């Protein structure tokens, strides 16, 4: 598993490590939804969007917030991810997933928002590592 949970009082902390920045963002998304949703996720819906930030850290926050927003408002649960991060901290995403269905899905832990508290994105020994805290 490319991510682990960090001990953090009243919130959810996640540390992710991957070889590429795109894999880092995708594994962060998987950690959010693995934490939040239980049940079979079908590949029945598609979603695409573009976001931007001023830095990798800000782009990661915007990525997480966009995913959380689309789940909270539209019920969208991604399962397959294709993203492209270009210079200037722009991200294009093409996602395949499912809409939340109370008959098939259960909320394990509600992830409300990504925070800037102790946020970091670094390249260490050829790997990208991110630490991020979520309000739950």
Describe the 3D structure.
This protein has 136 residues and is α+β, with helices and mostly antiparallel strands. It has one domain: Archease domain (Archease, Possible Chaperone, Chain: A, domain 1), CATH 3.55.10. The chain is built from two helices and nine strands; from the N terminus they run ββαββαβββββ. Strands 1-2-9-8 form a four-stranded antiparallel sheet, with helices on one face. A three-stranded antiparallel sheet has the order 4-6-5, with helices on one face. A hairpin with a 4-residue loop joins β1 and β2. The radius of gyration is 14 Å and the shape is globular.
CATH class equals Alpha Beta
Strand sequence of the main sheet, in spatial order? 1-2-9-8
Q: Kindly state the mean pLDDT as a whole number?
A: 95
Radius of gyration, whole Å: 14 Å
Tally of alpha and pi helices: 2
What fraction strand? over 45%
By helix and strand content, what is the structural category? alpha+beta
N-end to C-end Cα span: 22 Å
The tally of domains stands at: 1
Biggest β-sheet, characterized?
4 strands, antiparallel
Helix content: 25-40%
Provide the CATH topology. Answer: Archease, Possible Chaperone, Chain: A, domain 1
CATH architecture: 3-Layer(bab) Sandwich
* CATH-defined superfamily: Archease domain
- Give the strand tally: 9
Q: Helix and strand succession? A: EEHEEHEEEEE
């Amino acid at each position: 598993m490319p991510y682990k949970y960090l001990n953090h009082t009243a919130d959810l902390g996640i540390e992710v490590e991957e070889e590429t920045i795109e894999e880092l963002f995708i594994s962060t998304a998987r950690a959010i939804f693995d934490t939040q949703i239980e049940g079979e996720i079908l590949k029945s819906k598609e979603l695409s969007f573009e976001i931007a930030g001023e830095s990798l850290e800000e782009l990661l926050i915007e990525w997480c917030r966009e995913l959380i927003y689309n789940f909270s408002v539209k019920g969208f649960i991604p399962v397959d991810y294709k993203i492209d991060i270009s210079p200037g901290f722009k991200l294009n995403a093409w996602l395949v997933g499912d809409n939340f269905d109370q008959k098939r899905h259960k909320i394990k832990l509600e992830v409300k928002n990504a925070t800037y508290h102790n946020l970091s994105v670094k390249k260490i020994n050829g790997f990208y590592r991110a630490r991020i805290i979520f309000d739950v």
